[in-house]
Amino acid sequence: MVRRNWSAAALAGVLAVSTLAGCGGSDGGDGGSGGNDDGKITLGFSQVGAESGWRTANTKSIQESAAKAGIDLQFSDAQGKQENQITAIRNFITQKVDVIAFSPVVTSGWDAVLQEAKDAGIPVILTDRAVDSQDKSLYKSFIGSDFIVEGQKAGDWLVKEYEGKNEPVNIVELQGTTGSAPALDRQKGFQEKIAGNPNFKIVKSQTGDFKRADGKTVMETFLQSTPDIDVLYAHNDDMGLGAIEAIEAAGKKPGTDIKIITVDAVKDGMTALSQGKINFIVECSPLLGPQLMDLVKKADAGEEIPARVLTEETTFTQEQAKEALPTRQY
Ligand code: AHR
């Protein structure tokens, strides 16, 4: 519940957030209803963008959970740009929202704006992605996956797949957004696991920005420059799905000629896995909304909240995908 009076500056801030949100809008419906005195908690949320199926599911989870919890959500879409997120957070501070949450596009460069939120007495919760700030008092909690573990699961599968075989394995990697926590950590975890076998070689590694179209174009260049690709490791389903199009266009069979590992387990990825076009998917759950709203309520009430809330996740083989698909939520 915002207990403060509205100044001209605050109203300007609301307008800026609404404009920035583009199609985003707020669950409150007007993109500018913060500052109400109706006893509701106001949450300012800055989302990365709409780069993937995962992100769309994550936005839906947050919007639906806020509505269910009776929280007034001020939603801002950063369209993949850190500067837009910083502007949105500053606007939330001007609006005097009760709590700020955001999913940082990249890990670095947040200290100044987080300090401003802290100075304004507004608790901040990181969702989905971490920041590299050394001062942990700048935010109250971080809810999301362990991306290093996700990379390790991908590496473990590959090591097992080639167990007992003594042959070179040429791997190409489609990285997520450069400088983002999932791209850095999924690469790290994977590398750790394959390091013990000199047969594994990452022959190409490039960003596809977590987007399907970029996954396709980067895979096209990989296929042109590197004839003997055995394995593709894509940091998310969308890039893997784009790459599948490139592989098929090159006359190769995805999942057979080139083994494919991806991360997320959204419906489109799971469908490709069940069809044999992907070999293994590491799950990353986007359904963070309900837990986030619990944290928001507690933070607003001044209660202690855990510094780290870890998401529970699994992995899927082709057979497991067939079983899971009919009830898959996203
Ligand atoms: O931060 C989570 C990652 O961001 C998802 O794995 C990816 O699909 C999304 O864009």
Automatic annotation (TrEMBL):
Cited SUPFAM superfamilies: Periplasmic binding protein-like I
Keyword Ion transport carried by entry: no
Keywords: Signal
Periplasmic binding protein domain boundaries: 44-299
GO molecular function ontology, one term from the record: carbohydrate binding
Cleavable signal peptide: 1-21
Cell compartments where the protein resides: Cell envelope
The family this protein is said to belong to: Belongs to the bacterial solute-binding protein 2 family.
Name this protein carries in UniProt: Putative ABC transporter substrate-binding protein
Organism: Actinoplanes missouriensis (strain ATCC 14538 / DSM 43046 / CBS 188.64 / JCM 3121 / NBRC 102363 / NCIMB 12654 / NRRL B-3342 / UNCC 431)
